Amino acid sequence: MPHRLLIASAIVAAGGASLFGLVAAQEPASPAPEGAPAPVAEMIPPPANESPRWAVVERHNLGGNTTVGGTVVPLEEITFTAQMSGNVEMIAGNEGDFFKRGTTLAELDEAGLRAQRQAALAAIANAQATVRNAEVQYQREREEPSPKQGGNMMSQMMPMPFFGGDRETGVTRGATLHQYRTQIEQAQGAVVTAQAQLREVDAKLEDVKSVAPFDGYITHKHVNPGDTVQPGQPLLSFADMNHLQLQTDVPTRLSAPLTPGFVTKVKLDDPNQTVVMARVAQVFPMADPTRHTVRVKLDLQEGAPAKAGMYAEVLIPQPESDMGSAPAIPISALVYRGGLPMVYVLDAQNRPRLHLLRLGEQYGDRVSVLTGLQGGERVLLNPAEAD
């Protein structure tokens, strides 16, 4: 009888241990303090008909990383200035208002220019009338020469048409025709001058209006309706806030990895210290001779929670600096439980166990491991496929 009780107790204990192991495999481990050994939990092996892929954890030399601060700026930004003196007639909106391309954002009073335009049109009409009159006079002189003015008493008492006494001589008539041609040319010149004045006024009328060259937002109003402005005075600033860049001045000794198309991480100075990806868009060809820095612009990823003017830091890898070594695993080996990174590792009995990791920097398709692995372990690749 005592032997039967002892056997039953052993069965119950074994069943409890199996149940505890199953629960431990299903519940994710809580984060361990830094420096403490990573917690492990057994998992149910994958089905026998599947052959999971395993990879040996290798240690890799860690290159150093440097952070350089910069400022988030709009991809496109413009400040409209007054092209002439006058009063501000209209400002389309306030800071933060969105406007489509082609919208008039600011306008100066154009009453004076409208009057100048009317005067230019009148000058054109007068000059054209003068041209027509001079052409008529010239044509009349050619077809019917004017009679000679004055003359002696004999010619007045006894006209001598066969001597041409009542007509101008050839020299005099030529001078008269030249005079009319000169009047035509002068009148035509007056027309050209008046037309040029009209074009000048029309150009000034175009300068009266500030039109949005792209879709964007008003970022700053420098004047208000009714203000008097002078040429060159700022009216308002306008920017494309939907496409942002990080502008930073990088020391020349650190700028080698930053080439157009290079992708790196940027940490935003927001409450969450959000990390986003950015791609190098432009590297200025010349360094600042005073500060010995190179200006670099990076396109932030779409949807980044950044604002123009925000401070941000860009991560610049320095592979030549020796920062020691650390285990590195393929990103495909990671599995997340409760938002924590973990990996399946084969133990000495070839049983897969779940290890909690603390990750470092990412290098291509691999990521360094700060705690949780030592190197030499076998980790499961694509664990989601084996679950």
TrEMBL record:
Would you indicate the residue range of the signal peptide?
1-25
Highest taxon of the source?
A: Bacteria
**Where in the numbering of this chain does the Multidrug resistance protein MdtA-like barrel-sandwich hybrid domain appear?**
77-234
Keyword flag Signal: yes
* A Pfam family this chain is assigned to: BSH_RND
Keyword Disulfide bond on entry? no
Q: Which GO terms describe its cellular component?
A: efflux pump complex
Could you tell me the keywords of this UniProt record? Coiled coil, Signal
Q: Which InterPro entries match?
A: MdtA-like_BSH, RND_pump_MFP
Coiled-coil region list: 117-144, 177-204
The family line of this record is:
Belongs to the membrane fusion protein (MFP) (TC 8.A.1) family.
Q: What is this protein called?
A: Efflux RND transporter periplasmic adaptor subunit
UniProt source species: Thiorhodococcus mannitoliphagus
